[in-house]
Structures are given as C-alpha cells and as structure tokens.
Amino acid sequence: MHSQQNPFKFKLLTLAVLATCSHSTMSLSAEDVTGNIYMAPVVVTGTRIEQNSFDLPIAIDVVDQEDIQDGQLQMTLSESLIRIPGITAQNRTQSAQDPQISSRGFGSRSSFGVRGVRVYLDGIPLTMPDGQGQPGVVDLSAIRSIEVLRGPFSALYGNSSGGVIQLFTENAPKTPEVGATVMFGSYNTTRQILEAAGNADGVEYLLNFSNFESDGYRDNSESDKQQATAKFKFNISDDTKLTTLVNWFDQKAQDPIGLDRARAFDNSTRDSVVPAAIFANTSVKRDHAQIGFNLEHAFDENNKISLIPYVGTRTNAQILTTTPTAITRATTNARLSEIDREFYGMDAR
Length: 349
Fold this sequence. Notes:
With 349 residues, the protein is mainly beta. The protein is 15% helix and 45% strand. The strands form five sheets. It has an eight-stranded antiparallel β-sheet with strand order 12-13-14-15-16-17-18-19. The chain is globular, with a radius of gyration of 26 Å. The termini are far apart. The model is unreliable at 1-31 (pLDDT under 50).
C-alpha cells in the first residue's frame, strides 16, 4: 500500500506546482504588459540610419555612459571595452605604454598605438591616414556612449578596418550647466574634472578639462596627464549643421619597464624596478592636438551628405634603455625614440 500511494502523492504535488507556476506566469505577464518595456540599445552608425541593434545582421555592442564613468578611473579605454566580446583591450596598468586593442585578432600585432581597428569621435577619425589610431587622446569623462563594430561589416568604414570603435561626446543640455569632479586614490592618485555645457545663441557647446596624476604602484612609474575637449555645434539651418571638435592631450609618464626573473618571483621586490630604469630615466612625453569638422546637409529624410575634414599634430619622445641588465650607472646606455608628425585628411559620405 505504501508503494502505491507514492505515485498518487507525486501527481498531486506536480499538479500543485504547475498550478502555482501558471498563476505566477500569468501575473508576471500582466505586470509586464502594463509596466515599462526595455528594448535593446539603438545603434546609429552601423548602417548609417537608426536601427535596433538586435535587428542588425552585424556584431555590434554599445557601452553606455554609466558603464564608462561610474566606478571607473577613466584613465584608459580598456576599462570600458573589457566587457565587449571579441575585443581584447590590454590594460598595461601604467601610463607610459599605450593600451593595445584588438578586434577578433586585428591589431594584436601592434606594439604601440592601435592598428587594424579604426577609431572615431563624433564621426571624426582619430585614426591617422597611415592606419594608426590613438584612443588615449579621448577624455572618457566627456563620453556618453561607445559603439563597437566587429567583423566584415566594419569594412563600411574604409580600408584596413578589422573593427570600428565609435565614441560619442555628451549632448549639450538646453540650459547651461557647470560641473566639477574630484577623485582620490592610493599611491597619491588624483583626478580633477571641470566641464561646462549648454546653448548660446543657437550654438550648442561642450567644454571639458581633466587632470590625472599618480605616483604609480611600482617605482619609477609617476604619471601626469592633462586633456581637453571642446565641441561646438552650429545649427546653420534646419537641414544643415556644422560640428567643430577640438581635442588636446599632454602627458608625462615614467616607464618602470619589465622585471628580471629574480625580482618578478620575489614578493618583496615585485613593485620595484631594475636599476637600469632609474639610471636611464626611462620615460615618455606625448602631446597631441587635433581639430575636425563635420558638415552635414540633409536633402530629405532618407538622403544626407557629410564632409569631415580634420588636421592635427602629434609628438612622442620616449627614453629607452639598451642595457636593461646593467647594475651601475656607468654601464647603462639609453636612447631617445622621437616622433614629430603632422597629419590631415577628409572623409566624404
């Protein structure tokens, strides 16, 4: 009798569970219908027109402003891109080395800067005509969203495009706003941000300045970086708009270089450096300035022309040691690797 009652009890229990689940499902569905419905983010660049990212046959992801700024140091782009599938953003944890970004393998062989991945800011290229991009010049405190396009559809943006990183600055509010942010951290790390945005006589403007300083975790790893972003949008007419974007970047950073085996595997010396780094004063000095224009004219709701000229200058002076195993100043040799260049170009769509 005992063995015959178990199936009956199991059936009753199953029916009770199913009835409870059905009731919960019906209640949940009713609440969803009357409540807010959250859709996938809208992508505005993948196909040149606004579309739901879920409906596009391409690999594209959006990083929102709260994921870029909230709880982030906003020092390098790798902080925001680490969550994107197919994207490898190497955070070198010190400012003397550029972040290395690769998209599905494109750009993984670049020893400095970003190659094979095109970088844009408000539609204006940050990738130079030779294919090298410098995402470090972008002040993340002024960015409202990042769109990452991967795969063969990234060829929509031109040659040597294994992937596309589109950054968009904040929109100007209708009323003027002024703000400031101060952050503190260990190793004397500080960051100050000043920003102003608004509308004046039909001109939308955004001004942003930031300063970042840190002594670094290791010896000989101090860094000091200033950045400025200025955006002006002129509404010439209902169909014609001109956006002017100015980026300025200046950085000084010491380079602690690598450790020898003995120091790397000893907890007491893991944050130190080899003597050659101190004797050669391994470090880097960079500055970058760029101005770009985006002139848009809409013929109708489906047809538009865009002309995007840009021009800039960049200098990079890096001191390296050619004798990393030297233990005295007399046996240490150093060399200067210096780049000073001007660049310009234009996109027409």
